[in-house]
Amino acid sequence: MPKDTKTRYQGVYARHRIDCAVEQDGTCDCSPSYWGRVWDRVDTKHRKTKMVRTIAEARSARTDLQATVRAGRVPASNSMRVSTAIEAYLAAIDAGRALNKHGRQYKPSAVRDLQGALERYVRPAFGGKRLADVRRGDVQRLIDSITPEKSGSRVRTVVNAIRSLYGWAQDRELVDHDPASRVRLPAMNATPRDRVATVAEMQTLLDALDPADALPYALAAYATARRAEIRHARVEDVDLDLGVIYLGADERGRKSRAAQRAVPIVKPLAARLRRELMRRGRPGPKVLLCPGHKPGGRNSGMLSFEGLQKRADDVWEPKGRHGEPTGEKVGDRITAHECRHTCASWLDAAGVRPVIVSQFMGHAAPAHQVGAARITQERYTHGLPGEMNHAQELLDRWLARDADVLTGHGTLD
């Protein structure tokens, strides 16, 4: 280990090379680095400056550190690298020591998002830097580099992962700043999700699939189920006698308290549920309603929506290795989340009150807001094919009735 010796200045030390003569109690024959040290009376421990080239720099750094400690601020530790911090942070999440902003353990889906963002984007960008050396400009350059190819929501996932990492590091006095706190984010909804299916189109798409693969899409299209709710749903959550399915019953698949809800089972969904449960030999109540194809692995026997989507795409529009069509196209692809959008649009077209649609969707309206949750109307409700013609018919009917009243050929209801 390199040897540290005192200098003539209080709290300033010299660090010599391993092969320096000082190691043998001789006179220094190397070019040492210097660092300073102060005593933190609040935390009852010494705090060190970073290593610098000259005694003057070390004295200046020690003075700054002393002022920081006296002001009651926590100085940053400059030793830990970002890659090491990522490993420690993810390990703390697994152990339940790192909690989310609500003071609860991270859900598996949130852990996957955090790990993916940190490992795929943050570590390659500045994994070799010290935590304290990453600045807002570094994060902004990362955002600017991935914005052209990624959606606004994906970029926000990366930024939130950095904020979570630095929040954890600040709590442990590893750093005293968050480089992602004031970065400029790209616009959201640059390509809005507006894919909805008609009732007949959805029926065709579902009928083309294997019954086990069709059920998850049917739960989203007819019951507004989210992907996590489908993955964690169990047979006991379905009550065909009462005609309801309990979504969000498992906390791991629940997005919020409003997500825990009983949704009426419409006839098309009831028929599919009955057929699927009978086909599987009436599985026990604790068995997953939509199990995965492979036991164990990353999903631990649970449904992989990535694999499900690939199988569905191969059925709906068969293609060869080079993207050439190899069979008759069944219909345009749709995702499970777009099926959820479809159900919201169906409910709206059916004349269901917006506040009830919000309850169907598992959306919570703020305490000060009366009626439907804003997200239900703004993001999930879309126009369906033929609705403009239907609106024209309604308006013509109303205008004709109003004209009859004005000319005396009709009466007011």
Number of helices: 14
Distance between the termini: 96 Å
CATH class of the largest domain: Mainly Alpha
> What would CATH call the homologous superfamily of the largest domain?
Intergrase catalytic core
Taking pLDDT < 50 over at least 5 consecutive residues as the criterion, the unreliable ranges are none
Can you give the helix content as a percent range?
A: 40-55%
Biggest beta sheet attributes: 4 strands, antiparallel
CATH architecture of the largest domain: Orthogonal Bundle
Question: Beta-strand percentage?
Answer: 5-15%
The count of strands amounts to 7
- CA radius of gyration is 31 Å
Say what the CATH topology of the largest domain is: hpI Integrase, Chain A
N-to-C SSE string, H for helix and E for strand? EEEEHHHHHHHHEEEHHHHHH
> Going across the major beta sheet, what is the strand order?
1-2-3-4
